[in-house]
Amino acid sequence: MAIWLTKDSKVIVQGITGSEGSKHTRRMLAAGTQVVGGVNPRKAGTKVDFDGTELPVFATVAEAIKETGADASVIFVPPAFTKAAVVEAIDAEIPLAVVITEGVPVQDSAAFWAYNVAKGEKTRIIGPNCPGIASPGASNAGIIPADITPQGRIGLVSKSGTLTYQLMYELRDFGFSTCVGIGGDPVIGTTHIDALKAFQEDPETDAIVMIGEIGGDAEERAAEFIKANVTKPVVGYIAGFTAPPGKTMGHAGAIISGSAGTADAKKAALEAAGVKVGKTPSETARLMREVMSAA
């Protein structure tokens, strides 16, 4: 069992012929992902060879869905064209769109998210500026390395790509059901709360790791959701305990204003909701190992 991405997911790649798209398509195929084709209007009707696996290139997402039955798209297109690519995926009503692209203008992200809402939210958007989603041993959509961890019963949701990989590695002796990198931009399609809800409802996820970071109030809102709705153990980490106030730290969304958005404020909110919070990634992994060992 996994959330949103399973061994049966049929994945297309928007931007499959570009350098990043082709590189990571090859990686996804090696991980066992059912990549069934790609989209590039300028190269429609051609095929791309990936070590003996030939994948068709289509003009549109709608055509790719019609011909292959695809139910997920991974988007590797330049920032200037990302809005159009996501809107195309939404129009085709593909159930899952994973937007890897970094540097997407915030107004573009806000525009395609509002468009998705207006269209009835038939497409789950993950990202932009994210590593994607991986269900170890089943499927991998994005840039998360497939060999860090085996399948298991921990769910992971994270704003940070590198911390996603670190926690996957440190908890590899337990393994993961699904790892979701939601991205750190100010406007993103899937939130901590969305993932927490899905993991709570997944019968094969026993515990949840939630990685946040300074800036905004997403983690405080997640804490309220956990307190009201999540019965499974949650362990958390907030990146940025030593960040100086008023400075932009890494992600565009990681800006502290006054006392709002600090790591300590987020830690306090999560602990009030019953979440164990580590001060370092390794301490967070240790807390989760204790939870899993006691289960």
From TrEMBL:
<keyword id="KW-0816">Tricarboxylic acid cycle</keyword>
<feature type="binding site">
    <location>
        <position position="43"/>
    </location>
    <ligand>
        <name>CoA</name>
    </ligand>
</feature>
<dbReference type="InterPro" id="IPR016102">
    <property type="entry name" value="Succinyl-CoA_synth-like"/>
</dbReference>
<feature type="binding site">
    <location>
        <begin position="100"/>
        <end position="102"/>
    </location>
    <ligand>
        <name>CoA</name>
    </ligand>
</feature>
<dbReference type="GO" id="GO:0006099">
    <property type="term" value="P:tricarboxylic acid cycle"/>
</dbReference>
<dbReference type="GO" id="GO:0004776">
    <property type="term" value="F:succinate-CoA ligase (GDP-forming) activity"/>
</dbReference>
<dbReference type="InterPro" id="IPR005810">
    <property type="entry name" value="CoA_lig_alpha"/>
</dbReference>
<dbReference type="Pfam" id="PF00549">
    <property type="entry name" value="Ligase_CoA"/>
</dbReference>
<dbReference type="GO" id="GO:0009361">
    <property type="term" value="C:succinate-CoA ligase complex (ADP-forming)"/>
</dbReference>
<keyword id="KW-0547">Nucleotide-binding</keyword>
<dbReference type="InterPro" id="IPR033847">
    <property type="entry name" value="Citrt_syn/SCS-alpha_CS"/>
</dbReference>
<dbReference type="InterPro" id="IPR017440">
    <property type="entry name" value="Cit_synth/succinyl-CoA_lig_AS"/>
</dbReference>
<comment type="subunit">
    <text>Heterotetramer of two alpha and two beta subunits.</text>
</comment>
<dbReference type="InterPro" id="IPR003781">
    <property type="entry name" value="CoA-bd"/>
</dbReference>
<dbReference type="InterPro" id="IPR005811">
    <property type="entry name" value="SUCC_ACL_C"/>
</dbReference>
<protein>
    <recommendedName>
        <fullName>Succinate--CoA ligase [ADP-forming] subunit alpha</fullName>
        <ecNumber>6.2.1.5</ecNumber>
    </recommendedName>
</protein>
<feature type="domain" description="CoA-binding">
    <location>
        <begin position="4"/>
        <end position="104"/>
    </location>
</feature>
<dbReference type="GO" id="GO:0005829">
    <property type="term" value="C:cytosol"/>
</dbReference>
<dbReference type="Pfam" id="PF02629">
    <property type="entry name" value="CoA_binding"/>
</dbReference>
<comment type="pathway">
    <text>Carbohydrate metabolism; tricarboxylic acid cycle; succinate from succinyl-CoA (ligase route): step 1/1.</text>
</comment>
<dbReference type="GO" id="GO:0004775">
    <property type="term" value="F:succinate-CoA ligase (ADP-forming) activity"/>
</dbReference>
<feature type="binding site">
    <location>
        <begin position="17"/>
        <end position="20"/>
    </location>
    <ligand>
        <name>CoA</name>
    </ligand>
</feature>
<comment type="function">
    <text>Succinyl-CoA synthetase functions in the citric acid cycle (TCA), coupling the hydrolysis of succinyl-CoA to the synthesis of either ATP or GTP and thus represents the only step of substrate-level phosphorylation in the TCA. The alpha subunit of the enzyme binds the substrates coenzyme A and phosphate, while succinate binding and nucleotide specificity is provided by the beta subunit.</text>
</comment>
<comment type="similarity">
    <text>Belongs to the succinate/malate CoA ligase alpha subunit family.</text>
</comment>
<feature type="binding site">
    <location>
        <position position="165"/>
    </location>
    <ligand>
        <name>substrate</name>
    </ligand>
</feature>
<keyword id="KW-0436">Ligase</keyword>
<dbReference type="InterPro" id="IPR036291">
    <property type="entry name" value="NAD(P)-bd_dom_sf"/>
</dbReference>
<feature type="active site" description="Tele-phosphohistidine intermediate">
    <location>
        <position position="251"/>
    </location>
</feature>
<dbReference type="GO" id="GO:0000166">
    <property type="term" value="F:nucleotide binding"/>
</dbReference>
